[in-house]
Known about the structure:
About 25% of the residues lie in helices and about 25% in strands. With about 475 residues, the protein is of the alpha/beta class.
Amino acid sequence: MQEEKKSENKQLEEKLFYKKESSWLDYDENREKEVFAFAEDYKDFIGKSKTERLCVKNIIEILEKSGFKTIDKFTSLKKGDKGYRVFKGKTVTAFVVGDDPASLRIIGSHLDSPRLDLKPNPLYQSHELALLQSHYYGGIKKFHWVNIPLELHGVIFTREGKEISLSIGSNPGDPLFIIPDLLPHLAKDQMKKEATKVIEGEELNIIFGHIPIRDKEIKEGIKLNILKYLNDRYGLIEEDFITAELEFVPAQRPIDIGLDRGLVAAYGHDDRVCVYSSLRALVDATDVSKTAIGYFSDKEETGSYGDTGAESFALINFASHYIRLTGLDLSPWMLLENAKAISADVTGAMDPTFSSVNDPQNVSYLGKGVSIEKYGGGGGKYNTNDAHAEYTQYMRHLAMKNKIPWQTGEMGKLDIGGGGTIAMFMSRYGMDCIDVGPCLLGMHSPCEVASKGDIFSAYLLYKAFFMD
């Protein structure tokens, strides 16, 4: 049957309208296999990287397997050299020197995710249980964190100064931890509360033990038994909690979602999906003409403040070190001002159940490719970088010429909400910067959802950016 000829107006519509289809329709069978293989590698990485310290450890492992070495081992830098700088175990800056060492391509992402930290003196006994008082980190819905199994990871120091690394819950047979919620039979008053108060911060108390020491004269026998265990095994005393940097995170492993396995659910997609995608892009980029830099920062979920956050001078300090080793006749400020950058961070996806919070014309959709967002922030474009038209066109052209599925949008309708990234801290040096990353369902929850197609699209665009 002869195909019906399209009308002139139909042809005009196809030429002029902005339409985005599912990226899966652009993938042939071989490319789809690549997408799924990449997702399996990513699942392995994120499952082992549930805190910023663990994430840094795994980044270094991947870098060193790919021939990168610490910057301290270089006396000078030349084309093709691959190195990295770690700062306080929580920030990594990795690089591949290009043909033109004075031109930088920087992709910045953040290692941290919302979690439960501890109060300085957290351990107490009450009603036949030993519990830990937590202090939540980042923006969370507090009721998400009850009745789910939790792992414990982090470091703590003894009074004598010995560093103890704790990792409990990630190995088979390990105990896990939990915050119990009130049973529905007795929750009549609780259910009348606003969602922000259904579970309050002071109610996020983690069960840590139950069996008392065998001595009826000890009033807090369960607490003592827990401290005895910690002392026998690690040499710790209660006072040592003051030094602790212990994090409780969801115990769930990354899992496939849907019969077609097109989605990945995991804790920490925000923003370790961009960490891994940009790390792989850096490792896989070949013969770069501009120096490629992967910048992995901390503290974004609490504003990027602190000495390991993007608001610090970590980038300028790296630039100073880089200039000394390359012999460039440039100030660190001018080197960064002339750079091009991507803030690799996630954005919100359209949720069919809660579609009213988004403008359907200006939101990202799962499976339609990596999202390029000109700005973030809240109503009135506060707390954001607003990329220039010239740079937005550059990023659009980069995606188009490399045939990479992409889309654009905003996170929510005006005046409903919004979110920040590290783009505004990177761009303050004068470098062009724009937000690029996959969209998520359930962002900042203990189990976020991403499309494998979007994850792979992000990797492709990051790699194209490094090699452009």
